[in-house]
Amino acid sequence: GNKVIISKMDLPPGEQPLTLSTTDVCHTLRRVSARKAAGPDEFADDITVIGLIRGDDETAYRDEVQHLAAWCDDNNLVLNTQKTKEVIVDFRKSRNQAHTPIHISGAEVECVYNFKFLGVHISEDLTWSLNSSTMVKKVQQRLYFLRSLKKAHLCPRILVDFYRCTIESILTNCISVWYGSCSASDR
User: What angle do helix axes 156-163 and 129-151 make, rounded to 10 degrees?
Assistant: First the structure.
């Protein structure tokens, strides 16, 4: 059976994850080298590790997490384990054994049922109910303002612009990810 583990880790605000472009890697390494001299006051933020586990062998996944932790340590970045979360997506018919928690620098990483990634709520069963209900709540709040603008007799062009910027953008955020597997009641 296969099991996918998704972990969300955090980068410092305003920092981007390391990319594979040669220019970006050189630029990032220069930033890291400059930061190294300043000491370990930066947090590693917004890093996601995704691992596919086959045959109950989590070794590769655990090694990747430890490799990431070592890289952050070598580059004076701190992984905030209190903000680090792990979501396990497991569709095996038999889940006989409990998942052994991941540890980073001696601290246990909390295993959660869902987390927010790029504005989308991802749950361990890959249903989209939480994402849909959160989205509906946001849209309802903004519809109130749209009705208020309409009552103020603003021109239709401004109302359409407001709708597209504040409501449609929420409804279409990452729609290609969640809509196809969304239940009829969540649509």
Answer: 160
Integer Cα distance of 42 and 19 in angstroms: 19
DSSP class of residue 118 equals T
Residue 41, both tokens: 């006051």
Q: Which long-range contacts (CB under 8 A, 24 or more apart) does 98-106 make?
A: 100/58, 102/7, 102/62, 102/65, 104/65, 104/66, 104/69, 104/79, 105/69, 105/73, 105/79, 105/81
pLDDT single digits (tens) 123-157: 988 889 999 999 999 999 999 999 999 999 999 99
Give the DSSP per-residue string, 150-185. HHTT--HHHHHHHHIIIIIHHHHTTHHHHGGG--GG
H or E stretch including 110? strand 110-111
Strands 107-108, 110-111: pairing is unpaired
Angle at the Cα of 116 (from 114 to 107), degrees rounded to 5?
65
Cα 181 to Cα 127: distance, rounded to the nearest angstrom: 7
| Token digits of residue 77 | 């970045």
Q: Position 135: which residue type?
A: M
Amino acid identity, residue 122? I
The secondary structure element, H or E, covering residue 49 is strand 47-54
Specify the pTM. Answer: 0.65
